[in-house]
Amino acid sequence: MLAGHHLLSLVIWVPILSGVLVLATGSDRQAGLARVLALFGALAGLFVAWPLYTQFNVQTADMQFTEFSSWIPALNINYHLGVDGISMPLMLLNSFTTVLVVVAGWRVIQNKVSQYMAAFLIMSGLINGMFAALDAMLFYVFFEAMLIPLFLVIGVWGGPRRVYAAIKFFLYTLLGSLLMLVAFIYLFFQCNGSFEILDFQALPLNLPVQILLFIAFFMAFAVKVPMWPVHTWLPDAHVEAPTGGSVVLAAITLKIGAYGFLRFTLPIVPDASHYMAGFIITLSLIAVVYIGLVALVQADMKKLIAYSSISHMGFATLGIFLFNTLGMEGALVQMVSHGFVSAAMFLSVGVMYDRLHSRQIGDYGGLAKVMPVFAAFFMLFSMANAGLPGTSGFVGEFMVIMAAMKVNFWYAFLAAITLILGAAYTLWMYKRVVFGDVVRTEVAKLRDLVPREFFMLAVLAVLVLGMGLYPLPLTEIMHSSVNNLLAHVAQSKLP
Protein backbone atom coordinates (compact mmCIF):
# COMPACT_ATOMS: atom_id res chain seq x y z
CA MET A 1 0.00 0.00 0.00
CA LEU A 2 1.31 3.45 -0.95
CA ALA A 3 2.78 5.17 2.12
CA GLY A 4 1.05 2.71 4.41
CA HIS A 5 -1.67 4.25 6.51
CA HIS A 6 -0.74 7.86 5.68
CA LEU A 7 -2.33 7.83 2.23
CA LEU A 8 -5.03 10.36 3.08
CA SER A 9 -2.47 12.77 4.52
CA LEU A 10 -0.56 12.55 1.25
CA VAL A 11 -3.74 13.29 -0.73
CA ILE A 12 -4.29 16.39 1.40
CA TRP A 13 -0.77 17.73 1.87
CA VAL A 14 0.92 16.94 -1.46
CA PRO A 15 -1.22 19.55 -3.31
CA ILE A 16 -0.90 22.07 -0.46
CA LEU A 17 2.89 21.77 -0.24
CA SER A 18 3.11 21.84 -4.03
CA GLY A 19 1.13 25.07 -3.96
CA VAL A 20 3.52 26.57 -1.42
CA LEU A 21 6.46 25.54 -3.62
CA VAL A 22 4.83 27.15 -6.67
CA LEU A 23 4.18 30.29 -4.65
CA ALA A 24 7.88 30.43 -3.77
CA THR A 25 8.81 30.96 -7.44
CA GLY A 26 7.72 34.55 -6.90
CA SER A 27 7.36 37.02 -9.75
CA ASP A 28 6.14 36.45 -13.29
CA ARG A 29 9.75 36.28 -14.49
CA GLN A 30 9.59 32.68 -13.24
CA ALA A 31 6.13 32.05 -14.75
CA GLY A 32 7.34 29.10 -16.86
CA LEU A 33 8.80 27.38 -13.82
CA ALA A 34 5.61 28.07 -11.83
CA ARG A 35 3.51 26.42 -14.53
CA VAL A 36 5.71 23.32 -14.70
CA LEU A 37 5.82 22.94 -10.92
CA ALA A 38 2.05 23.41 -10.72
CA LEU A 39 1.46 20.70 -13.32
CA PHE A 40 3.79 18.29 -11.54
CA GLY A 41 2.09 19.12 -8.23
CA ALA A 42 -1.39 18.53 -9.65
CA LEU A 43 -0.32 15.24 -11.28
CA ALA A 44 1.35 14.17 -8.03
CA GLY A 45 -1.89 14.90 -6.19
CA LEU A 46 -3.82 12.72 -8.63
CA PHE A 47 -1.16 10.00 -8.44
CA VAL A 48 -1.35 9.71 -4.64
CA ALA A 49 -5.16 9.83 -4.75
CA TRP A 50 -5.50 6.98 -7.27
CA PRO A 51 -4.76 4.18 -4.72
CA LEU A 52 -7.89 5.32 -2.85
CA TYR A 53 -9.76 3.73 -5.75
CA THR A 54 -7.55 0.74 -6.53
CA GLN A 55 -7.20 -0.32 -2.88
CA PHE A 56 -10.75 0.48 -1.81
CA ASN A 57 -12.77 -2.39 -0.32
CA VAL A 58 -16.24 -2.20 -1.88
CA GLN A 59 -17.63 -4.88 0.46
CA THR A 60 -17.61 -2.75 3.61
CA ALA A 61 -19.27 0.48 4.71
CA ASP A 62 -16.60 1.15 7.34
CA MET A 63 -14.27 4.12 7.08
CA GLN A 64 -11.09 3.15 5.24
CA PHE A 65 -7.51 4.48 5.15
CA THR A 66 -8.14 5.96 8.59
CA GLU A 67 -5.58 8.11 10.40
CA PHE A 68 -5.78 9.45 13.95
CA SER A 69 -3.59 11.89 15.86
CA SER A 70 -4.37 14.24 18.70
CA TRP A 71 -4.36 17.84 17.41
CA ILE A 72 -5.61 20.14 20.20
CA PRO A 73 -5.83 17.94 23.33
CA ALA A 74 -7.29 20.70 25.52
CA LEU A 75 -10.43 20.78 23.34
CA ASN A 76 -10.29 17.12 22.34
CA ILE A 77 -9.91 18.09 18.67
CA ASN A 78 -8.21 15.38 16.62
CA TYR A 79 -6.61 14.99 13.23
CA HIS A 80 -8.93 12.11 12.31
CA LEU A 81 -9.25 11.10 8.66
CA GLY A 82 -11.11 8.37 6.78
CA VAL A 83 -13.12 7.82 3.62
CA ASP A 84 -16.04 5.67 2.56
CA GLY A 85 -17.89 5.06 -0.70
CA ILE A 86 -19.54 8.48 -0.47
CA SER A 87 -16.48 10.67 0.02
CA MET A 88 -13.80 8.79 -1.93
CA PRO A 89 -15.21 9.40 -5.46
CA LEU A 90 -15.47 13.12 -4.68
CA MET A 91 -11.80 13.25 -3.64
CA LEU A 92 -10.77 11.62 -6.92
CA LEU A 93 -12.97 14.06 -8.84
CA ASN A 94 -11.34 16.98 -7.02
CA SER A 95 -7.78 15.75 -7.68
CA PHE A 96 -8.57 15.20 -11.37
CA THR A 97 -10.19 18.63 -11.72
CA THR A 98 -7.08 20.30 -10.30
CA VAL A 99 -5.02 18.91 -13.18
CA LEU A 100 -7.59 20.29 -15.62
CA VAL A 101 -7.56 23.83 -14.24
CA VAL A 102 -3.75 23.96 -14.25
CA VAL A 103 -3.70 22.90 -17.91
CA ALA A 104 -6.58 25.27 -18.75
CA GLY A 105 -4.73 28.28 -17.33
CA TRP A 106 -1.38 27.36 -18.91
CA ARG A 107 -1.26 30.14 -21.50
CA VAL A 108 -4.36 32.11 -20.60
CA ILE A 109 -3.12 33.42 -17.25
CA GLN A 110 -0.24 35.85 -17.80
CA ASN A 111 -0.32 37.92 -14.60
CA LYS A 112 0.53 36.59 -11.12
CA VAL A 113 0.93 33.10 -12.57
CA SER A 114 2.51 31.50 -9.52
CA GLN A 115 -0.18 32.86 -7.20
CA TYR A 116 -2.95 31.67 -9.54
CA MET A 117 -1.60 28.14 -9.81
CA ALA A 118 -0.79 27.95 -6.11
CA ALA A 119 -4.33 29.00 -5.18
CA PHE A 120 -5.82 26.00 -7.02
CA LEU A 121 -3.30 23.52 -5.62
CA ILE A 122 -3.79 24.69 -2.03
CA MET A 123 -7.57 24.72 -2.50
CA SER A 124 -7.43 21.15 -3.85
CA GLY A 125 -5.67 19.90 -0.73
CA LEU A 126 -8.06 21.76 1.58
CA ILE A 127 -11.10 20.30 -0.20
CA ASN A 128 -9.63 16.80 0.04
CA GLY A 129 -9.14 17.40 3.75
CA MET A 130 -12.76 18.42 4.11
CA PHE A 131 -13.99 15.23 2.38
CA ALA A 132 -11.68 13.07 4.56
CA ALA A 133 -12.26 14.75 7.95
CA LEU A 134 -13.90 12.62 10.65
CA ASP A 135 -13.51 15.28 13.35
CA ALA A 136 -16.13 18.04 13.15
CA MET A 137 -13.73 20.89 13.93
CA LEU A 138 -11.16 19.57 11.47
CA PHE A 139 -13.96 19.50 8.87
CA TYR A 140 -14.91 23.08 9.79
CA VAL A 141 -11.33 24.33 9.44
CA PHE A 142 -11.01 22.81 5.95
CA PHE A 143 -14.57 23.90 5.06
CA GLU A 144 -13.77 27.54 5.81
CA ALA A 145 -10.14 27.57 4.64
CA MET A 146 -11.01 26.45 1.10
CA LEU A 147 -13.05 29.64 0.69
CA ILE A 148 -9.92 31.79 0.86
CA PRO A 149 -8.11 30.65 -2.32
CA LEU A 150 -11.38 30.58 -4.27
CA PHE A 151 -12.21 34.09 -3.04
CA LEU A 152 -8.79 35.25 -4.28
CA VAL A 153 -9.16 33.50 -7.65
CA ILE A 154 -12.46 35.30 -8.31
CA GLY A 155 -11.39 38.63 -6.81
CA VAL A 156 -7.95 38.89 -8.45
CA TRP A 157 -8.28 37.17 -11.84
CA GLY A 158 -12.00 37.67 -12.47
CA GLY A 159 -13.98 40.01 -14.69
CA PRO A 160 -14.96 43.68 -14.27
CA ARG A 161 -17.32 43.02 -11.31
CA ARG A 162 -15.01 40.48 -9.70
CA VAL A 163 -14.75 42.17 -6.29
CA TYR A 164 -18.53 42.35 -5.90
CA ALA A 165 -18.91 38.71 -6.96
CA ALA A 166 -16.10 37.52 -4.66
CA ILE A 167 -17.47 39.34 -1.60
CA LYS A 168 -21.01 38.12 -2.28
CA PHE A 169 -19.75 34.54 -2.61
CA PHE A 170 -17.70 34.79 0.58
CA LEU A 171 -20.44 36.36 2.71
CA TYR A 172 -23.13 33.90 1.60
CA THR A 173 -21.02 30.85 2.34
CA LEU A 174 -19.47 32.22 5.55
CA LEU A 175 -22.74 33.26 7.20
CA GLY A 176 -24.33 29.88 6.57
CA SER A 177 -21.40 27.98 8.00
CA LEU A 178 -21.41 29.97 11.28
CA LEU A 179 -24.69 28.28 12.21
CA MET A 180 -23.05 24.92 11.48
CA LEU A 181 -20.29 25.83 13.95
CA VAL A 182 -22.91 26.54 16.61
CA ALA A 183 -24.44 23.10 15.90
CA PHE A 184 -21.03 21.45 16.29
CA ILE A 185 -20.46 23.14 19.64
CA TYR A 186 -23.88 22.01 20.90
CA LEU A 187 -23.19 18.43 19.78
CA PHE A 188 -19.77 18.57 21.43
CA PHE A 189 -21.36 19.13 24.84
CA GLN A 190 -24.06 16.55 24.19
CA CYS A 191 -21.37 14.04 23.25
CA ASN A 192 -19.38 14.38 26.50
CA GLY A 193 -16.64 16.49 24.98
CA SER A 194 -16.14 14.78 21.63
CA PHE A 195 -16.03 16.35 18.18
CA GLU A 196 -16.00 12.92 16.46
CA ILE A 197 -18.53 12.90 13.63
CA LEU A 198 -19.24 9.20 14.11
CA ASP A 199 -20.00 9.88 17.80
CA PHE A 200 -22.44 12.63 16.77
CA GLN A 201 -24.31 10.07 14.66
CA ALA A 202 -25.01 7.86 17.68
CA LEU A 203 -26.58 10.60 19.84
CA PRO A 204 -30.26 10.22 20.84
CA LEU A 205 -31.77 13.67 20.28
CA ASN A 206 -35.40 14.72 20.64
CA LEU A 207 -37.25 16.01 17.58
CA PRO A 208 -37.30 19.76 18.41
CA VAL A 209 -33.52 19.69 18.93
CA GLN A 210 -33.06 17.69 15.73
CA ILE A 211 -35.11 20.25 13.79
CA LEU A 212 -33.01 23.13 15.10
CA LEU A 213 -29.81 21.27 14.20
CA PHE A 214 -31.30 20.46 10.80
CA ILE A 215 -31.91 24.18 10.17
CA ALA A 216 -28.32 24.99 11.17
CA PHE A 217 -26.90 22.35 8.82
CA PHE A 218 -29.35 23.34 6.09
CA MET A 219 -28.20 26.97 6.15
CA ALA A 220 -24.57 25.88 5.71
CA PHE A 221 -25.08 23.25 3.02
CA ALA A 222 -28.00 24.71 1.04
CA VAL A 223 -25.90 27.78 0.20
CA LYS A 224 -23.10 25.55 -1.05
CA VAL A 225 -25.31 23.40 -3.33
CA PRO A 226 -26.75 26.08 -3.98
CA MET A 227 -30.48 25.49 -3.47
CA TRP A 228 -33.20 27.93 -4.40
CA PRO A 229 -33.61 30.64 -3.08
CA VAL A 230 -30.03 31.01 -1.69
CA HIS A 231 -28.52 30.52 -5.14
CA THR A 232 -28.08 34.10 -6.29
CA TRP A 233 -24.34 34.25 -5.54
CA LEU A 234 -23.54 31.50 -8.06
CA PRO A 235 -24.34 33.18 -11.42
CA ASP A 236 -22.38 36.29 -10.38
CA ALA A 237 -19.43 34.20 -9.22
CA HIS A 238 -19.40 32.14 -12.41
CA VAL A 239 -19.64 35.09 -14.77
CA GLU A 240 -16.83 37.00 -13.07
CA ALA A 241 -14.53 34.05 -12.28
CA PRO A 242 -11.76 33.03 -14.70
CA THR A 243 -12.33 29.74 -16.51
CA GLY A 244 -10.44 27.70 -13.90
CA GLY A 245 -12.47 29.27 -11.11
CA SER A 246 -15.74 28.43 -12.86
CA VAL A 247 -14.58 24.84 -13.39
CA VAL A 248 -13.76 24.32 -9.71
CA LEU A 249 -16.92 26.11 -8.58
CA ALA A 250 -19.17 23.90 -10.69
CA ALA A 251 -17.28 20.61 -10.58
CA ILE A 252 -16.27 20.57 -6.90
CA THR A 253 -17.58 23.25 -4.55
CA LEU A 254 -21.25 22.68 -5.38
CA LYS A 255 -20.78 19.04 -4.31
CA ILE A 256 -19.68 20.10 -0.84
CA GLY A 257 -23.23 21.06 0.11
CA ALA A 258 -24.71 17.76 -1.03
CA TYR A 259 -21.89 15.90 0.72
CA GLY A 260 -22.69 17.80 3.92
CA PHE A 261 -26.28 16.56 3.81
CA LEU A 262 -25.01 12.98 3.46
CA ARG A 263 -22.28 13.18 6.11
CA PHE A 264 -24.01 15.33 8.74
CA THR A 265 -27.69 16.07 8.24
CA LEU A 266 -29.07 12.62 7.48
CA PRO A 267 -27.06 10.51 9.95
CA ILE A 268 -27.02 13.01 12.87
CA VAL A 269 -30.65 14.19 12.69
CA PRO A 270 -32.45 11.37 10.83
CA ASP A 271 -35.91 12.04 12.31
CA ALA A 272 -35.73 15.71 11.42
CA SER A 273 -34.48 14.74 7.96
CA HIS A 274 -37.61 12.64 7.41
CA TYR A 275 -39.77 15.37 8.94
CA MET A 276 -38.30 18.08 6.66
CA ALA A 277 -37.94 15.91 3.55
CA GLY A 278 -41.02 17.42 1.88
CA PHE A 279 -39.55 20.90 2.31
CA ILE A 280 -36.22 19.90 0.74
CA ILE A 281 -37.93 18.02 -2.11
CA THR A 282 -40.07 21.10 -2.84
CA LEU A 283 -37.01 23.37 -3.01
CA SER A 284 -35.22 20.80 -5.18
CA LEU A 285 -38.10 20.61 -7.66
CA ILE A 286 -38.31 24.41 -7.81
CA ALA A 287 -34.60 24.45 -8.64
CA VAL A 288 -35.05 21.76 -11.30
CA VAL A 289 -37.99 23.45 -13.05
CA TYR A 290 -37.87 27.18 -12.30
CA ILE A 291 -34.10 27.61 -12.64
CA GLY A 292 -34.29 25.61 -15.89
CA LEU A 293 -36.75 28.22 -17.19
CA VAL A 294 -34.42 31.02 -16.03
CA ALA A 295 -31.58 29.39 -18.00
CA LEU A 296 -33.71 29.59 -21.15
CA VAL A 297 -33.57 33.38 -21.26
CA GLN A 298 -29.84 33.88 -20.63
CA ALA A 299 -27.76 35.65 -23.29
CA ASP A 300 -24.43 34.98 -21.55
CA MET A 301 -23.13 31.42 -22.03
CA LYS A 302 -21.48 31.27 -18.63
CA LYS A 303 -24.60 32.46 -16.89
CA LEU A 304 -26.70 29.91 -18.78
CA ILE A 305 -24.40 27.05 -17.71
CA ALA A 306 -24.34 28.41 -14.14
CA TYR A 307 -28.14 28.28 -13.94
CA SER A 308 -28.15 24.82 -15.50
CA SER A 309 -25.76 23.72 -12.72
CA ILE A 310 -28.29 24.82 -10.09
CA SER A 311 -30.98 22.86 -11.92
CA HIS A 312 -28.82 19.73 -12.19
CA MET A 313 -27.80 19.90 -8.53
CA GLY A 314 -31.49 20.00 -7.66
CA PHE A 315 -31.48 16.37 -8.80
CA ALA A 316 -28.80 15.57 -6.24
CA THR A 317 -30.72 17.01 -3.27
CA LEU A 318 -33.94 15.42 -4.56
CA GLY A 319 -32.32 11.99 -4.77
CA ILE A 320 -30.80 12.28 -1.29
CA PHE A 321 -34.12 13.05 0.42
CA LEU A 322 -36.10 10.31 -1.32
CA PHE A 323 -34.54 7.89 1.20
CA ASN A 324 -34.07 4.95 -1.12
CA THR A 325 -30.95 3.32 -2.56
CA LEU A 326 -31.67 4.20 -6.18
CA GLY A 327 -32.23 7.87 -5.36
CA MET A 328 -29.16 8.29 -3.17
CA GLU A 329 -26.86 6.46 -5.58
CA GLY A 330 -28.40 8.45 -8.43
CA ALA A 331 -27.62 11.65 -6.53
CA LEU A 332 -23.98 10.62 -6.11
CA VAL A 333 -23.68 9.59 -9.76
CA GLN A 334 -25.23 12.90 -10.74
CA MET A 335 -22.69 14.77 -8.61
CA VAL A 336 -19.71 13.05 -10.24
CA SER A 337 -21.21 13.31 -13.73
CA HIS A 338 -21.99 16.99 -13.25
CA GLY A 339 -18.37 17.45 -12.24
CA PHE A 340 -17.24 16.16 -15.63
CA VAL A 341 -19.96 17.79 -17.75
CA SER A 342 -19.94 21.22 -16.11
CA ALA A 343 -16.14 21.31 -16.23
CA ALA A 344 -16.29 20.46 -19.94
CA MET A 345 -18.94 23.12 -20.63
CA PHE A 346 -17.04 25.88 -18.83
CA LEU A 347 -13.76 24.86 -20.48
CA SER A 348 -15.52 24.99 -23.86
CA VAL A 349 -16.78 28.50 -23.15
CA GLY A 350 -13.25 29.36 -22.03
CA VAL A 351 -11.87 28.16 -25.37
CA MET A 352 -14.20 30.55 -27.18
CA TYR A 353 -13.62 33.42 -24.76
CA ASP A 354 -9.83 33.16 -25.11
CA ARG A 355 -10.23 33.80 -28.84
CA LEU A 356 -13.04 36.34 -29.07
CA HIS A 357 -13.16 37.74 -25.51
CA SER A 358 -16.93 37.49 -25.44
CA ARG A 359 -19.36 35.14 -23.71
CA GLN A 360 -22.44 36.55 -25.42
CA ILE A 361 -24.30 33.98 -27.49
CA GLY A 362 -25.21 36.64 -30.06
CA ASP A 363 -21.54 37.39 -30.81
CA TYR A 364 -20.97 33.95 -32.31
CA GLY A 365 -22.45 31.88 -35.12
CA GLY A 366 -21.04 29.47 -37.67
CA LEU A 367 -18.27 28.07 -35.45
CA ALA A 368 -18.68 24.65 -37.06
CA LYS A 369 -17.19 26.08 -40.27
CA VAL A 370 -14.07 27.52 -38.66
CA MET A 371 -13.63 25.27 -35.58
CA PRO A 372 -15.03 21.85 -36.61
CA VAL A 373 -13.09 19.80 -34.03
CA PHE A 374 -14.17 22.09 -31.22
CA ALA A 375 -17.76 22.01 -32.50
CA ALA A 376 -17.76 18.20 -32.28
CA PHE A 377 -16.55 18.22 -28.66
CA PHE A 378 -18.97 21.00 -27.75
CA MET A 379 -21.82 18.98 -29.26
CA LEU A 380 -20.99 15.94 -27.10
CA PHE A 381 -20.82 18.00 -23.91
CA SER A 382 -24.02 19.87 -24.78
CA MET A 383 -25.79 16.55 -25.30
CA ALA A 384 -24.48 15.32 -21.93
CA ASN A 385 -25.68 18.55 -20.31
CA ALA A 386 -29.12 17.88 -21.79
CA GLY A 387 -29.10 14.31 -20.42
CA LEU A 388 -28.73 12.32 -23.64
CA PRO A 389 -28.74 8.52 -23.05
CA GLY A 390 -25.25 7.12 -23.48
CA THR A 391 -23.64 10.07 -21.72
CA SER A 392 -22.94 10.45 -18.00
CA GLY A 393 -25.53 13.23 -17.79
CA PHE A 394 -28.33 10.73 -18.33
CA VAL A 395 -27.40 8.06 -15.76
CA GLY A 396 -27.79 9.97 -12.50
CA GLU A 397 -30.89 11.87 -13.61
CA PHE A 398 -32.60 8.68 -14.81
CA MET A 399 -31.80 6.93 -11.50
CA VAL A 400 -33.28 9.82 -9.51
CA ILE A 401 -36.41 9.95 -11.68
CA MET A 402 -36.89 6.20 -11.22
CA ALA A 403 -36.43 6.59 -7.45
CA ALA A 404 -38.89 9.51 -7.38
CA MET A 405 -41.46 7.39 -9.22
CA LYS A 406 -41.32 4.88 -6.34
CA VAL A 407 -42.19 7.65 -3.89
CA ASN A 408 -44.56 9.96 -5.76
CA PHE A 409 -45.53 10.17 -9.44
CA TRP A 410 -45.59 13.96 -9.44
CA TYR A 411 -42.06 14.18 -8.06
CA ALA A 412 -40.91 12.08 -11.00
CA PHE A 413 -43.02 14.05 -13.48
CA LEU A 414 -41.66 17.43 -12.37
CA ALA A 415 -38.09 16.12 -12.23
CA ALA A 416 -38.39 14.74 -15.76
CA ILE A 417 -39.32 18.19 -17.04
CA THR A 418 -35.68 19.18 -16.66
CA LEU A 419 -34.75 16.75 -19.44
CA ILE A 420 -36.96 18.81 -21.74
CA LEU A 421 -35.79 22.17 -20.40
CA GLY A 422 -32.16 21.05 -20.42
CA ALA A 423 -32.43 20.09 -24.07
CA ALA A 424 -34.19 23.37 -24.84
CA TYR A 425 -31.69 25.82 -23.36
CA THR A 426 -28.58 23.80 -24.23
CA LEU A 427 -29.50 23.13 -27.86
CA TRP A 428 -30.75 26.69 -28.30
CA MET A 429 -27.35 27.94 -27.20
CA TYR A 430 -25.49 25.38 -29.33
CA LYS A 431 -27.52 26.16 -32.45
CA ARG A 432 -26.88 29.90 -32.26
CA VAL A 433 -23.17 29.56 -31.43
CA VAL A 434 -22.12 26.71 -33.74
CA PHE A 435 -24.51 26.52 -36.69
CA GLY A 436 -25.53 29.05 -39.31
CA ASP A 437 -23.42 31.35 -41.46
CA VAL A 438 -20.28 33.10 -40.30
CA VAL A 439 -21.50 36.69 -40.30
CA ARG A 440 -18.73 38.30 -38.25
CA THR A 441 -15.19 38.71 -39.54
CA GLU A 442 -13.83 38.11 -36.03
CA VAL A 443 -15.45 34.64 -35.98
CA ALA A 444 -14.15 33.85 -39.47
CA LYS A 445 -10.58 34.35 -38.22
CA LEU A 446 -10.84 31.95 -35.26
CA ARG A 447 -8.50 28.98 -35.17
CA ASP A 448 -9.45 25.46 -34.07
CA LEU A 449 -8.23 23.70 -30.93
CA VAL A 450 -4.55 23.72 -30.06
CA PRO A 451 -3.08 20.43 -28.70
CA ARG A 452 -3.42 21.56 -25.05
CA GLU A 453 -7.13 22.31 -25.48
CA PHE A 454 -7.71 19.12 -27.48
CA PHE A 455 -6.15 17.05 -24.69
CA MET A 456 -8.36 18.63 -22.01
CA LEU A 457 -11.59 18.13 -23.91
CA ALA A 458 -10.65 14.65 -25.18
CA VAL A 459 -10.02 13.34 -21.65
CA LEU A 460 -13.37 14.73 -20.50
CA ALA A 461 -15.11 13.26 -23.56
CA VAL A 462 -13.76 9.80 -22.70
CA LEU A 463 -14.96 10.14 -19.10
CA VAL A 464 -18.41 11.44 -20.08
CA LEU A 465 -18.94 8.60 -22.57
CA GLY A 466 -17.31 5.94 -20.38
CA MET A 467 -19.43 6.78 -17.36
CA GLY A 468 -22.55 7.04 -19.49
CA LEU A 469 -22.05 3.61 -21.07
CA TYR A 470 -20.63 1.76 -18.04
CA PRO A 471 -21.32 3.41 -14.64
CA LEU A 472 -20.74 0.21 -12.60
CA PRO A 473 -17.16 1.05 -11.47
CA LEU A 474 -18.62 4.09 -9.72
CA THR A 475 -21.87 2.66 -8.38
CA GLU A 476 -20.25 -0.44 -6.85
CA ILE A 477 -17.98 1.78 -4.75
CA MET A 478 -20.84 3.65 -3.13
CA HIS A 479 -23.31 0.76 -2.74
CA SER A 480 -22.29 -0.48 0.73
CA SER A 481 -21.94 3.01 2.19
CA VAL A 482 -25.31 4.14 0.80
CA ASN A 483 -27.12 1.09 2.14
CA ASN A 484 -25.46 1.54 5.53
CA LEU A 485 -26.49 5.21 5.65
CA LEU A 486 -30.09 4.40 4.71
CA ALA A 487 -30.24 1.68 7.38
CA HIS A 488 -28.94 4.20 9.93
CA VAL A 489 -31.42 6.89 8.87
CA ALA A 490 -34.31 4.43 9.04
CA GLN A 491 -33.65 3.91 12.76
CA SER A 492 -35.14 6.62 14.97
CA LYS A 493 -32.72 8.52 17.20
CA LEU A 494 -35.49 9.86 19.46
CA PRO A 495 -34.71 9.29 23.16
Short characterization:
By secondary structure, this protein is mainly alpha-helical.
Which SSEs are present, and which pair or pack?
Elements: H1 7-23, H2 31-49, H3 51-54, E1 64-72, E2 77-83, H4 88-104, H5 113-132, H6 136-145, H7 147-157, H8 162-190, H9 197-200, H10 207-224, H11 233-240, H12 243-268, H13 270-275, H14 277-296, H15 301-320, H16 325-356, H17 367-370, H18 372-385, H19 392-407, H20 409-434, H21 441-444, H22 451-469, H23 472-490
Antiparallel strand pairs: 1-2
Helix pairs in contact: 1-2, 1-5, 2-4, 2-5, 4-5, 4-12, 4-16, 5-6, 5-7, 6-8, 7-8, 8-10, 8-11, 10-12, 11-15, 12-15, 12-16, 14-15, 14-20, 15-16, 15-19, 15-20, 16-18, 16-19, 16-22, 16-23, 18-20, 18-22, 19-20, 19-22
Strand order of the largest sheet: 1-2
Percent helix: over 70%
Determine the structural class based on helices, strands and strand pairing.
mainly alpha
Shape call = globular
Largest sheet: 2 strands, antiparallel
Number of strands: 2
Mean pLDDT: 86
List low-pLDDT spans: none
Number of helices: 23
Beta-strand percentage? under 5%
N-to-C SSE string, H for helix and E for strand: HHHEEHHHHHHHHHHHHHHHHHHHH
Q: In whole angstroms, how far apart are the ends? A: 43 Å
Radius of gyration: 22 Å
Structure overview:
- There is one protein chain.
- The chain has 495 residues and is mainly α.
- Strands 1-2 form a two-stranded antiparallel ribbon.
- Strand 1 and strand 2 form a beta hairpin.
- The longest helix is centred in the last third of the chain and has 32 residues.
